[in-house]
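Structure (tokenized):
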């Protein structure tokens, strides 16, 4: 079911989030307090809330906690939960019914609304009402809250996927290079989406890859990529740059239906869908996501006996406990306490 398209909503003020009285420099510093990916998610969540309010003939700046509870209930059931752009330049889009939203998505929706209210100086904030917190507990309890663990795209299945990709066309070459780079650098999809040509420094031993600051890494970091014997990320990147003729700007870009490169980058969601599509064409027994290549590198390195400090040079982990889980899992059957007892 779709609803009439809406453009330029009356209460656009909530979507702008930051006070218009702030100058551009103040807004820039305020915006830098949170990662771009977080603010983009908040903006999308707030947009859905604003348009939902307009369809309910509500002022989003004057909503009560009951209104927010009704909004969350609709989202949990998939009612008016999908936003579709009809004309992004004109700001025209519509809300549609879709799949029920997971509790984690609802928590983020609520956080986005709360953040917008906070920036607007709304007090008391209806998002903090005790009934909303109680309702969220109910949504979590009724929903399937079991976490499905992302599968690790380790060396063997990754090799199968890479070998099946036709690299004679730009789409195949792009995906082949991107998959190989994400594995070799243990990259998150958000990191891969932001890589530009200027971030690559080809040196004698391989490539120095600069990674921009993110919510995971507050400062710019650099990792080394070395040549591989069977699948080489260094050679793959050289070939991609040569064939694509990309000299500056985003390294990995979207493509239109005719296989032509677009100027804008392939975003995190596009990368996620590409990984699922390419993997699904070869392996249907593995649950993959944008994190599968990072997990795959760590699992492969641990299994191969690489020391933790060298793995961290690539993964940039700050919490050793997270990485220790991989070591524990890899050695679960080694020197087992039951060995020799039966």
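Design, position by position:
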């Amino acid at each position: 079911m779709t609803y009439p398209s809406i453009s330029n909503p009356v209460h656009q003020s909530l979507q702008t989030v930051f006070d218009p009285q702030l100058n551009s420099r103040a807004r820039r510093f305020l915006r830098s307090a949170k990662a771009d990916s977080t603010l983009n998610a908040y903006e999308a969540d707030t947009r859905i809330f604003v348009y939902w309010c307009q369809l309910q003939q509500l002022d989003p700046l004057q909503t009560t906690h009951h209104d927010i509870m009704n909004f969350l209930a609709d989202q949990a059931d998939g009612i008016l939960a999908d936003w579709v752009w009809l004309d992004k330049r004109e700001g025209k889009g519509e809300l549609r019914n879709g799949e029920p939203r997971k509790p984690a998505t609802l928590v983020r929706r609520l956080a986005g609304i709360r953040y917008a209210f906070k920036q607007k100086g709304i007090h008391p904030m209806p998002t903090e009402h005790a009934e909303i917190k109680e309702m969220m507990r109910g949504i979590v309890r009724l929903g399937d809250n079991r976490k499905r663990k992302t599968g690790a795209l380790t060396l063997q299945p990754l090799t199968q996927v890479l070998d099946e990709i036709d690299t004679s066309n730009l789409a195949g070459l792009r995906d082949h290079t991107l998959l190989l780079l994400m594995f070799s650098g243990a990259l998150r999809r958000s990191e891969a989406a932001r890589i530009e040509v200027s971030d690559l420094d080809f040196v004698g031993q391989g490539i120095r890859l600069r990674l921009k600051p993110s919510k995971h890494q507050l400062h710019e970091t650099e990792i080394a990529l070395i040549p591989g014997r069977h699948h080489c990320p260094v050679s793959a990147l050289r070939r991609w740059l040569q064939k694509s003729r990309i000299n500056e700007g985003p390294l990995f870009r979207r493509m239109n239906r005719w296989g032509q490169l677009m100027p804008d980058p392939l975003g995190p969601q596009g990368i996620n869908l590409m990984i699922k599509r390419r993997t699904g064409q070869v392996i249907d027994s593995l649950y993959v996501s944008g994190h599968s290549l990072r997990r795959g590198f760590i699992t492969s390195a641990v299994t191969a006996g690489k020391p933790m400090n060298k793995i961290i040079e690539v993964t940039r982990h700050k919490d050793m406990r997270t990485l220790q889980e991989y070591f524990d899992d890899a050695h679960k059957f080694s020197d087992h306490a039951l060995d020799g007892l039966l």
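Reviewer-requested clarification: The CA atoms of residues 190 and 268 lie 5 Å apart. Residues 6-142 form a domain with the DNA polymerase; domain 1 fold (CATH 1.10.150.130).
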